[in-house]
Amino acid sequence: MSQVFIVGGAGKIGRRLSQQLSMHGYEVLALYRNPEQTEELKSLGAAPVPGSLLELDVDALATLMAGSDVVVFCAGAGGKGGPQMTNAIDGQGLELAVAAARKAGIPRFLLVSAFPESFRGKEVSETFENYMVVKKLADVHLAESDLDWVILRPGTLLDTTGTGKVRTGLAIPYGEVSRDDVAATLLEIIERPTVSRVIIELTQGDTPVGESVQRLARP
């Protein structure tokens, strides 16, 4: 059984991923901040791990991660708390998690990022513009590391039921995608170690998730 450590385990994608991983026989550790979410995480099959990216240091987070085979970073400020919170969670939090994974000896690291064309052509706030800048810099930080990384850039996220069919690629047209299908795509990436050191864009599509991800595997 493989062990997966989810940073942002109580988020909308983190919860869905916890459930899907548990159903496939993975041991799931879900990092979360709010004690009220403990029982929900347990019901999804995850082992709740209390902790905050705003308070943990590298050594402490590495200790929590110890023994895991994969780290999945899907934490995000979600626009709450303005640019400072985005910088702290989506930016510095990612850097902290990368350093902790390296210290814990966990080579494989998956990051849920943002589609670069998100809301282009529309009037957006300075907070959102900052969010996109921070997300890109987080991508750069991970891509320049020596980890076995994968960066997943989903389009506009929906809470609709997943279809199990997506479109993935190095560069694809902008679109929407269910959070269910984002979690399913992360699961397929975890199960395919030959999908490595690649940035994947993701939207809804016509290809079964497993088949779509397999096309991105290295020979």
What features would you highlight for this structure?
219 residues, alpha/beta, Rossmann fold, 39% helix, globular
Q: How is the quaternary structure best described?
A: single chain
Number of strands: 11
Largest pleated sheet: 9 strands, mixed
Low-confidence stretches: none
Overall tally of structural domains: 1
What is the level 1 CATH name? Alpha Beta
How do the strands line up in the largest sheet? 3-2-1-4-5-6-10-8-11
Question: What's this, in brief?
Answer:
The chain is 39% helix and 24% strand.
Overview of the molecule:
It is a single chain. The protein is of the alpha/beta class. The chain has one domain (3-214): Rossmann fold, CATH 3.40.50.720. The protein has helices spanning 12-23, 38-43, 58-65, 82-104, 126-143, 179-190, 209-214; strands at 3-7, 27-32, 46-50, 70-73, 108-112, 148-154, 156-158, 165-169, 176-178, 198-204, 207-208. A nine-stranded mixed β-sheet has the order 3-2-1-4-5-6-10-8-11, with helices on both faces. A two-stranded parallel sheet has the order 7-9. β4, α4 (82-104) and β5 (108-112) form a beta-alpha-beta unit. The radius of gyration is 16 Å and the shape is globular. The two termini are 25 Å apart. The model has no long low-confidence stretch (mean pLDDT 94).
Task: Give the helix/strand layout.
Elements: E1 3-7, H1 12-23, E2 27-32, H2 38-43, E3 46-50, H3 58-65, E4 70-73, H4 82-104, E5 108-112, H5 126-143, E6 148-154, E7 156-158, E8 165-169, E9 176-178, H6 179-190, E10 198-204, E11 207-208, H7 209-214
Parallel strand pairs: 1-2, 1-4, 2-3, 4-5, 5-6, 6-10, 7-9
Antiparallel strand pairs: 8-10, 8-11
